[in-house]
Specification:
- This protein is mainly β and about 220 residues long.
């Protein structure tokens, strides 16, 4: 697992950060900017964020479709109803943040770490995830249908109502999950790695999909 900056001061660009004031603007490029607190609403389609930090920020229904997040760090943020569809995330870290009712479909996440985050009703359909870690997170009603996942892991995370129907997987390690609640596990787990206990827990779904009746 990659080293994760735990504090703002741990960021290699921390001393270069300048405070942000005002709203967000579409197609704007934000370089080494610190967004500290406050609520951002409205639309900022196609905005770009390079080496930026977000602390205690609320993105309430904010339109960030097609935005680019490169080497960004978010701590204690709330993203509610945020439109992140078709956005790109690379070398990003999200700590202790809440993502609820998010449109994140068709996005690309590469080398992204989410630690201690809560994801609820998040739409990641058709997204591409590569080298992504969900550590000690809660994923509830998260839709990863038709997504492409490569080198994804979920150590210590609880998956509750996570859907993978039609997903394509390679090196997806689910063994470290605290719980696996996968209502359509039989439809999209090819390429995933499970432990024996998880396999037994999911066996009824696999049997049902194959038309097998188990009686003692």
């Amino acid at each position: 697992m990659p080293a994760v900056p735990e504090q703002l001061a741990d960021l290699p660009y921390a001393e270069l950060l300048s405070p942000h004031t005002g709203r967000l603007y579409g197609d704007e490029r934000y370089d080494t900017v610190h967004f500290d607190g406050g609520t951002y609403e409205g639309r900022a389609l196609g905005a770009g964020f390079l080496e930026c930090a977000f602390t205690g920020v609320e993105l309430d229904g904010t339109g960030l479709r097609d935005a680019r997040f490169n080497d960004v760090w978010l701590q204690g943020c709330r993203l509610v109803g945020t439109d992140l569809a078709e956005s790109e995330w690379q070398d990003a870290t999200l700590l202790g943040s809440v993502l609820a009712g998010i449109s994140w479909y068709g996005s690309a996440l590469r080398r992204v770490v989410l630690r201690g985050c809560k994801l609820e009703a998040v739409n990641l359909r058709g997204a591409v995830l590569r080298d992504v870690v969900f550590e000690d997170c809660l994923l509830r009603d998260v839709d990863l249908g038709e997504a492409k996942l490569t080198s994804v892991s979920v150590p210590g995370s609880t998956l509750d109502g996570v859907r993978f129907a039609g997903a394509r997987m390679a090196k997806v390690d689910l063994r470290g999950a605290a719980a696996l609640g996968l209502p359509d596990a039989h439809l999209g787990l090819s390429g995933a790695v499970l432990n024996t206990g998880q396999l037994f827990d999911l066996a009824p779904l696999f049997a049902q999909a194959l038309g097998i009746t188990v009686k003692d």
